[in-house]
């Protein structure tokens, strides 16, 4: 995993009002936790940070320069405006080169299973331990030609060297099942119900006519 270099600024103003002012300047408020130190509140450049997170994925690693000091920061939580889809806040964990970290990495299904099957992903991510600067971006499950009944468990996954699986090896990750046939035939029950309804309507009309006669 490559690191993205970002120049950040220490932040001394807090609260919603301060955060809004930061965002109006096309910047993003963030905080760095870890190593038993007090949280470090920072302001990040908006566009550069957005591109770095997009490129690095869920576990993007940023090489932050804060007042001339370098700090590796692993992305842990990102807040996004649900309407405008803009970054609002980023939480990081401070890490060091060579340090082991625990992360969730996404499962990616590749290949085409056998005909008349469905591929069901039971686990979208698996938990692994890896060196901070060598976190896998994802882990692939190859279902090419897999028949119905084929199952892939966490222990079947091939992780890059240096990564250790923490998820239960017996946990089901991907399941290939038989595709259920859909009956597109006529629905006689609906027709019967319609016919019955018509009969009731005719009976009601006959009763109304009898009442009118009286």
Structure description:
This protein is α+β, with helices and mostly antiparallel strands and 214 residues long. It is built from 3 helices and 13 strands. The strands form 3 sheets. Strands 1-3-2-6-5-4 form a 6-stranded mixed barrel. It has a 4-stranded mixed beta sheet with strand order 10-7-9-12, with no helix packed on it. It has a 3-stranded antiparallel beta sheet with strand order 8-13-11, with no helix packed on it. Strand 4 and strand 5 form a beta hairpin. The protein is elongated.
For the residues shown, what is the average pLDDT?
85
Strand order of the largest sheet: 1-3-2-6-5-4
The helix/strand class is alpha+beta
Quote the distance from N terminus to C terminus. 91 Å
In percent terms, what proportion of residues is strand? 35-45%
Give the number of DSSP strands: 13
The radius of gyration computed from the alpha-carbon positions, rounded to a whole number of angstroms, is 29 Å
